[in-house]
Amino acid sequence: FRQQALAVTLDTEHKFELALHLENLQVCHELAVELDNEQKWLQLSDVATKQGDFSLVQECLTRAQSFGSLILLASASSDQQLMSTIGEQSRKAGQFNIAFLSSFVLGKLEQCLDILIENQRLPEAAFFARTYLPSQINRIVGLWRDKLKELNMERAAQTLANPTDYENLFPGFTDTNKTEQFLKQNKKNTSARNYPVQLPNWERNPIAEMKAAEENGQFSYIPIQSNQRITDDNEDNFDDANETSTQSTIKDLRFDDDDDKSLNDT
């Protein structure tokens, strides 16, 4: 008798539940718009998924701001526009983990870096830049140092070595800069139908690809003017540093009584 009850009931909540059990998507949608309740949108999305109405599923999840489920939907349907929209909306909603993930999936590395900086995740931003955007490492290390100084951690700020200035501490740093430029120049979108014949990323060696292209004359590195060098009057000299001396320096590092007191005060 649910159909008859649906026709006569005046209670909106009850009517929605009846329409949901009857899987009447049109009535459910009208009532969900009227109620505008997150739980109702999620319930409707479940029923719409069973019936294969994915446009309605997308609307329900968007209204409910269920960005995690939306990412799954966008990935399964290879919807680049939806993935981009998820990134924008989740960032505005303060769900930065989702925003970062959607940007990373789309290959928007600069946007990923901006999200980390925006949330003051400067150590993570530095490692992210070191891995994916080495051309940005100079700027990020500068921001990291400034943040440490704001926290009265002057000594920690001085120990941060900038790869741009001290390449002897970061073997292969020049090659990573070249590879970043090489990958940007050769970036292209590939159709999902080519997945079976596409070489997986974990089997690729981007640096080797860059060197091969460079030897064949297919790639020529154009040095980019780096950001202004970060200097500090009390900065340690890293020029002659090596792994052994660095380890011994760390072992021999001691704080005097005044330093201990200042650290405790902070």
Automatic annotation (TrEMBL):
Domain COPA/B TPR: 1-145
GO cellular component terms listed in the entry, alphabetical order: COPI-coated vesicle membrane; Golgi membrane
Keyword Repeat belongs to the record: yes
Keyword hit for Protein transport: yes
Gene3D superfamilies registered for this protein in UniProt: 1.25.40.470
Organism of provenance: Rotaria magnacalcarata
Start and end residues of each stretch annotated as Disordered: 220-266
Skewed-composition ranges (Polar residues): 220-229
Entry superkingdom: Eukaryota
Keywords associated with the record: Cytoplasm, Cytoplasmic vesicle, ER-Golgi transport, Golgi apparatus, Membrane, Protein transport, Repeat, Transport, WD repeat
Pfam families (alphabetical): TPR_COPA_B
Cell location: Cytoplasmic vesicle, COPI-coated vesicle membrane; Golgi apparatus membrane
Membrane topology of the entry: Peripheral membrane protein
Name of the protein in question: COPA/B TPR domain-containing protein
